[in-house]
Design a protein that fits this description.
alpha/beta, about 300 residues, 10 helices, two-stranded parallel ribbon, 6-stranded mixed β-sheet, about 15% strand
Length: about 300
């Protein structure tokens, strides 16, 4: 038995280099097959690499949502123009703001893993050195951390280490404390990240952060669309327009008692912010413009039909 083992081992040893090379090639083939299988499931393809930090995603889809059976994923354009460093995403609760953050983060990790991407092939990606993420409730009783203090602990390394070649994803920036203090901290954090030339996407309900993008060209607004007709989010990201929270509408849709909703509407009517009033006007103008566009298209079709006759 020992002689047979020794003889077989000697034959293997003589072909060790070939066997080792075959093994490595089979591993590589297995990885490529898995990557191809994933790409088919995601309907994924290539994208161009950027030389400079920035963001230009066209029809980007959340890769995990895309793999769910019987689930239609909403594709969104997520991008920054030249000179812009931060995208400030606002809009209703449960409207898809966090999904946008996760979509951008996961796709960048897929790039680093050489995977094909669930978005339009005209998209551009930059290989960021680091991706800083602060998402979710960092409350920890054993460490004596409240929601707010846990959030600040998550922001601390971002403010200490983030640089021009890093991507920062912050969900509900500076939430969990008195609104004026939270919004002030949020603005200071965004300005510091912009001063560091870091690329960032943040979600917020604070009006001063929405107005920041109006007054400072380094920032860009985005909002998650909400259908006031159906009282439902559409999960579509609309760039260059700040969004409303639609908290009362969401509460009504969830089914809070009617008298509570009416009382909240009465109280809110007295203290509605200037930003909310401006956004109401913008949305009304946008709807009016869309109606005019639809009417124009219909008239054009009728004219073409008359011309043909």
């Amino acid at each position: 038995i020992l002689r047979i083992f020794k003889d077989l081992s000697a034959q293997v040893a003589a072909e060790l280099e070939t066997i080792d090379n075959n093994y490595k090639q089979l591993v590589e083939l297995d990885i490529l097959s898995a990557e191809a299988s994933l790409a088919v499931k995601l309907d994924a393809g290539p994208a161009a690499l950027r030389d400079k930090p920035g963001l230009s995603f066209l029809r980007a889809r959340h890769p995990l949502l895309e793999m769910r059976q019987g689930f239609k994923t909403i594709a969104n354009d997520v991008g920054l123009e030249d000179g812009q460093l931060s995208l400030i995403v606002s809009g209703p609760n449960a409207g898809g703001k966090t999904v946008v953050l996760k979509t951008v983060g996961l796709i960048h990790l897929m790039v680093k893993a050489r995977l094909l991407l669930p978005m339009d092939e005209k998209s551009e990606v930059f290989l960021f050195d680091s991706i800083f993420v602060e998402i979710g409730d960092a409350q920890n009783l054993s460490a004596n951390l409240s929601t707010f203090s846990g959030h600040l602990m998550g922001l601390k390394p971002v403010l200490q280490e983030a640089g021009p070649s890093d991507l920062i994803l912050l969900d509900e920036l500076a939430v969990g404390t008195e609104p004026q203090t939270g919004s002030a901290i949020g603005q200071a954090v965004l300005e510091e990240l912009a001063n560091r030339k870091a690329t960032a996407i943040v979600t917020t309900h604070f009006d001063n952060l929405k107005s920041l993008a109006i007054n400072d060209p380094r920032f860009r607004n985005g909002s998650m669309e909400f259908s006031t007709k159906d009282l439902q989010p559409t999960y579509r990201l609309v760039l260059d327009i700040p969004g409303q929270s639609y908290g009362l509408e969401v509460a009504e849709q969830i089914g809070l008692p009617r008298h509570v909703i009416e009382r909240a509407k009465d109280l809110r009517g007295r203290s509605s912010s200037n930003m909310e009033q401006i956004l109401d006007s913008w949305m009304a103008l946008r709807d009016e413009a869309q109606n005019e566009k639809n009417r124009y298209v219909q008239l054009k079709l009728e004219m073409e039909s008359q011309k043909h006759r």
